[in-house]
Write a structure and sequence with these properties.
The protein is mostly beta strands. It is built from no helices and seven strands. It starts with 7 loop residues before the first strand and ends with a strand.
Length: 89
């Protein structure tokens, strides 16, 4: 999603909200590209050291932007870019 300063956005996480205006965008603020992961141990098998990862894999959400939005009733808040939808294009 390509959000720009001055766009009208709504929150899509829990239905739709009233539109707000994007004031500031902090690029690559949340998340990571890769993470250390372990394979789950089936029930009844030996416990192993979980501090040692088994492999490195991409994260589910990846890197996201932090967006400052001015809402008409609540004022300024920071939102995660993946819960916002642009409505003025």
């Amino acid at each position: 999603m390509n959000i720009r300063i001055g766009d009208l956005v709504v929150v899509t996480e829990c239905g739709f909200s009233i539109p707000g205006i994007v004031v500031k965008i902090d690029k690559d603020f949340y998340g990571a590209r890769d993470a250390f992961k372990t394979n789950p141990v089936p029930r009844g098998h030996a416990i192993r050291d979980i501090r040692k990862p088994d492999f490195i894999a991409p994260t589910r959400d990846g890197i996201r932007d932090r967006v400052m939005v001015c809402w008409p009733e609540e004022g300024f808040t920071y939102e995660d870019s993946n819960i916002l939808m642009v409505v003025n294009r």
